[in-house]
Amino acid sequence: MDGSKAYALAGVFGGIAVGGAFVIGSGLVAVTGIPLMPAIVNGLWVGLLIATASFVLKEYCLVGTAMMLVYGVAATVTVLLGPPGWHKIPIAVAMGFSWDICVWRRSALIFYLLGSVVFMLVGFSLLMLTFYLQNAPAFDKMFAVLPVVLSVSVVTMCVGALLGRRLVGVRLRDLPAFKRIVGR
To answer: Please, are residues 67 and 31 in contact by the beta-carbon 8 Å criterion?
Structure first.
């Protein structure tokens, strides 16, 4: 597969990630009123997709960054990654880049777990900084539940990454349709 197709496929994964995360995330924010709550469930969804994209396209650099760039651009008008605004693009790109640093050209599960932890820590750090700088109305509620939400989000992201890695590494790798998409 040439580079343009690989990054287009990473973009498709980013679009799928933002679509699913929006459906899940909007409902959780509406019910709880705390913008960090969707991270608990979305960690599983995004972890599954970013791990799958990274494993499928492991010979290409910055696949997670490309995926999260699409995620960040599409999320600018939604409640994903905080209140609507352009500030989500650099946050999403930083999250994707931190993932890429950990997993690029590495297939061992430990790197996917490390990537999941770093991905969430970078994301939560930048989100909390953004909420603080914007003087977000729910900042006090978010800060109170941060340790619990962060811990559960890291676990769900790890589970999603392991599922994505296993799904591709064991189940999908030998399917003819998968080989046609990937070009192997």
So the answer is: no
Of 47, 56, 67, 41, the residue nearest 149 (C-alpha): 41
Round to whole Å and give the CA distance between 30 and 172: 36
Residue 171 maps to which CATH number?
Answer: 1.10.1760
Is the pLDDT assigned to residue 120 strictly greater than 90?
yes
Give the structural domain span for 36: 3-182
Q: What is the dihedral of CA 181, 6, 52, 148, to 10 degrees?
A: -150
The total number of structural domains in the chain stands at: 1
Q: Determine the Cα–Cα distance for residues 167 and 65; give it in Å rounded to an integer.
A: 21
User: Rounded CA gap, 164 and 131, in Å?
Assistant: 31
Q: Are 114 and 154 in contact (CB under 8 A)?
A: no
Instruction: Give pLDDT tens digits for 56-69.
Output: 888 888 999 999 99
User: C-alpha angle with apex 89: 80 to 134, nearest 5 degrees?
Assistant: 70
